[in-house]
Amino acid sequence: MEFKPVEWIYQLIQWLLNIILSPNAPPPHAVLGRPRIAIIGAGLTGVAAASHCVGHGFDVCIFEAGDETALGGIWSKVNNTSGLQIHSIMYRFHPSVKWDGGYPDRHQIVSQITQLWKRYSLQERTKFNTKVTSVYQDKQSRWIINDPSNGRFDGVIPAIGSCGDPKMPYIEGQKKFKGEIYHSSQLDGKTAKGKKVLIIGGGASAVEGLEFVIHTKAASTSVLARSDKWIIPRNAVVDVLLAFNIFGQETMFSWIPESLLRLFFYRDLKDLAPTSGGLFTGTPMVNSDVFRQIRDGKASWLRGDIIRMTENGVLFNHRAKGVPKGGPGREEEVKGDMVIMATGYHRPNLSFLPDEVFHDPYQPPAWYLQVFPPAHVSISAINCTYANAIGTVGSWHIGIYTRLLLVFLVDPLARPQEYWMKKWIDMTRFLKRRSPVGAFDFFTYSELIYWFVFCIAINPFRWKWALFVFFGIGSALPLSVVKEEDRLRDRLRIGKKTS
Q1: How far apart are CA 195 and CA 213, in angstroms?
Q2: Can you name the residues that pair with 199 across neighbouring β-strands?
Q3: How confident is the model at residue 1 (pLDDT cuts 50, 70, 90)?
Q4: Residue 361: cis peptide before it, omega within 30 degrees of 0
């Protein structure tokens, strides 16, 4: 067997991370302590957050609307040909995760989620076929999920993600089309071999369609996109460097990475690069194959508007670069045998949460650290409030957000007050006031890390928790300090009453 030093080093790093940072899994049927956390959703985020909670000795209950086949969230629904577009080193949603290579496929991702779920004995703490419709507090400020029969909880982690059911809009003339029409997530068991494929949509869902047509060897592919979207290479170094923009917005230096992308990645296809809307205003599409397919003459990328479908394809208003949506263009029929609707997914909503978390101007994504509503610090909506970003949804931050919630619940002096949570939101809005999009409508991963560091540094009572929050190390010492602080406060309270 050929020795591959880079892969060997990567496996060694994963082994070390597991040994050093993975919390110990509790034995089956272990009785865990409070705070008790309700986790809504058994996807990647929900399972990862639950494993961190039980690994640190806190009880959880996962509520999942679907059956056990829904374990893994969106990854349980996508095509078998789908895979991770960013490097797996940026997708370590738990220290114990072990990837075989840089870009795992859907099967391996679901397998890792399932193994994590079993490793931390979460089977006995998961309620499938339980859709959450309401979350409210009792008189003791403990959370109730749907009704009291499900128990009471000290904290809630909504982990419903940003992708729900497939979005399948009706296009005029669709019934006349003689070919096949599928959503980009429903391509298992289908084949595009020898066919002319039309992909409607140019966002992240188009990646699913492209993976499918490449895998099944379509004759040709035309991507019909309404708007220009930045495309960045499937390269770990490039993706990490772009996420290093700590300002989380367009700056006077944004032209540098944009120019480098046009020069070295787009090259002869610069016409496809956006003319308006900077790189740091929306989530880019991560894909290297699309340009390769275009250069090989196997694919084309057309900018314009869908007019209607015909018997043999799509009537399309082909716009020139810079012409806005709905603007003038050249009408043409783009012929195809198969249409893939890369129209995305309906976004799951958080309407089951109390009304007070949605009051202007502090409603998602404008919450404390983007996930804690100022009205209720015992709620942490991880990975389901963001709009656009350059980074990853499946990494280090899941554990940090989860441990911050645990800290806020067990340590009153570390717990942020509603007033200061709102002030942090106001400050972030002020710092990003010149952003072409809203302050919380786009962020980068390095900005997210800055938020975490600021959160710990601003309050001296949180300093003792720093190693625990960032790495899951050493909760015993901070907890003992909290107990001493509680005793001191009690003595002071008694002393005041006596005097």
Answers
A1: 9
A2: 223, 340
A3: low
A4: yes
- For residues 166 and 205, is the Cβ–Cβ distance under 8 A? no
**Mean pLDDT along residues 391-400:** 91
In Å, how far are 14, 228, 264, 265, 324 from 321, measured between CA atoms?
45, 9, 20, 18, 8
Q: Is the peptide bond before 365 cis (omega within 30 degrees of 0)?
A: yes
Rounded to 10 deg, the angle between the 396-410 and 44-55 helix axes is 50
Q: What tokens were used for 266?
A: 């787009």
Q: Which residue, among 50, 299, 75, 332, has the nearest Cα to 185 in the 3D structure?
A: 75
Residue 388's DSSP bridge partners are 442
> How many other C-beta atoms lie within 10 A of the C-beta of residue 79?
21
Residue 280 to residues 430, 446, 449, Cα–Cα distance (Å): 18, 13, 17
Is the whole-model pTM more than 0.70? yes
Question: pLDDT for 356-386, tens place per residue?
Answer: 999 999 999 999 999 999 999 999 999 999 9
Give the tens place of pLDDT for each residue, 111-133: 999 999 999 999 999 999 999 99
Beta-bridge mates of residue 196: 220
The amino acid at residue 214 is: I
CA atoms of 224 and 226, how far apart (whole Å): 7
SS3 state at 18: helix
